[in-house]
Amino acid sequence: MRQLGTILCFYPILSVLMESGKGLSVCALLFVNAFFWPWMAWRLALASDDPTGRERINLTLDAAFGGVWVAMMALSPLPSFVIMAILVADRYAAGGWAQLIAALQAFLVAFVLVWALQGAPVNMNFSTRTVWLTLPLATFYLLALSVVSYNLTLNLRLKNRELERIALMDPGLKIPNRRLFERRLESEFLRTRRGESAAWLMLIDVDHFKAVNDNFGHEAGDFLLAEISALLRDGVGIEDIPARFGGDELCVIVRDAQEAAILALAKTLQTRISQLRLPASADFSCTVSIGIAPASKVDSIHSWLRHADEALYQVKRGGRNGVHLWQPSEGVTH
């Protein structure tokens, strides 16, 4: 952007300098500023221990150079005001108010010094050639600035989404954590209330998980939970949402299913989990207790959670390793 800006500024400034009879040395300085300074600024930033801080200084120097050339043009209105407008827009886009204020200060200091040394001339005339040479600066550069700003905003938005996704995922199990689970639970409850879905909540508790940690170590417990999470990711529907509910409890929000299908899914998951083995014990067998509640038969998210939890504890009271489906009247154990 710096190289593009200096090149597009070079031609209208050169036109005004030539029309006002400036010497070859001044035009040579303009050439150095337009074609060598961007490369030099890039090298200085690249070699610096603080490239961002160095670039802030470079941006301020850009503004000072702009003040010099506006003064050398004796305030020739068309190129001068276009350059000033672009400096303001570019500095604010690059660093906000702090960068803009620093740039304006540098611009004004450089302008006043050079303008005063020249006797404070004012040139309100400009040729048709200067107009034509200013048009690319007034159009192409602003268009390029808009494209660059949009791309930076888009990249930042994508980065923020990725950071949010990471913050809402359980790093060890690679499934949503409790925070994201609660968001999705609310969303699916509302969809069911609107008649757009028939969501179910399945709470899964690993039976005697403390004994796994005690007998084989916490690493074995973490391994077991990770394996069960992988089974959930692969075993549920593409639109269903497995998540970590807390501790050794996992859950699945099934977005749209009938009672027979949800019970079949629970039995399938039980069977697949029972086939898991620990690296430290080929004889190890894992069982889980599963409680299920439908969103269509409750009046709030809290009731939905509570009824699924009640169904889970019904299984635990019955000896674990089972599936219980909560019913509005009397629960039925399967």
Number of helices: 11
- Number of DSSP strands? 8
- Beta-strand portion reads 5-15%
Biggest β-sheet strands, sense, barrel: 6 strands, mixed
How would you describe this structure to a colleague?
- By secondary structure, the chain is of the alpha+beta class.
- Helix content is 66%, strand content 10%.
- It is built from eleven helices and eight strands.
- The protein has helices at residues 2-19, 24-35, 37-47, 51-72, 77-117, 128-167, 178-193, 209-216, 218-235, 259-274, 301-317; strands at residues 169-170, 175-176, 200-206, 241-246, 249-254, 288-294, 323-325, 332-333.
- The protein has a six-stranded mixed β-sheet with strand order 4-5-3-6-7-8.
- Strand 6 (288-294), helix 11 and strand 7 form a beta-alpha-beta unit.
- It is elongated and about 100 Å long.
- The chain starts with a helix and ends with a strand.
- Mean pLDDT is 88; it is low at 330-334.
